Amino acid sequence: MNLSAAAHHPGFLSPTGVEITFVLIGLAVLGAAVLTVTTRQLVHAALWLVVALGGLAIEYLLLTAEFIAWVQVLIYVGSVVVLLLFGLMLTRAPIGRSPDADSENRWVALGVAAVAAVTLVWVVVDAFRSTWIDLHGVVRSSSRATGESLFRHWVLPFEALSVLLLAALVGAIVLSRRDGTEGAAGATGAPGKEN
Questions:
Q1: For a surface tag, which of 36, 79, 85, 106 has the fewest beta carbons within 10 Å of its beta carbon?
Q2: Cβ count within 10 A of residue 59
Q3: pLDDT tens-digit readout, 128-146
Q4: Cβ atoms of 46 and 84 closer than 8 Å
Q5: Could you tell me which of 109, 116, 42 has the C-alpha nearest to residue 81?
């Protein structure tokens, strides 16, 4: 009896190809995330964020959560990163290396990130300690059930996120127009005052 149970749940010492792929893509996502927060070029940070979020979508596909994977691609890669790039373009952020991108608080940020990572790993391990995902069995959930659950119980966070994204885009447009009008007024405003 114990041998048959061990055959169904091989454990961590005999990983399958899916588990090895999951770990490798997870390491790539971790590397992209580190590059996102350590690069001094804002556009490069946005592009590394695309890599990290796309890698997470692949991780969801490996966990047989196709609906969540495509939501990840459509909302985060397709909307949030595009909005971030539009904000960078509209506010005339520097394209090259920016000294303003470094706040000299690396050790504090590293400590906060380490505490957050340890807490997150501990919570996930504690919550799913005895849960096994059968990748070869019958899929018990569907996109319809997931969508109904999301839009029945999580409508307000989705709407709040859409309002937040819209406010960020409007703010970027307002900032870019204000900087442009102030620059034009300063250039033509006072011809008699020359130093």
A1: 106
A2: 19
A3: 777 776 656 666 666 777 7
A4: yes
A5: 42
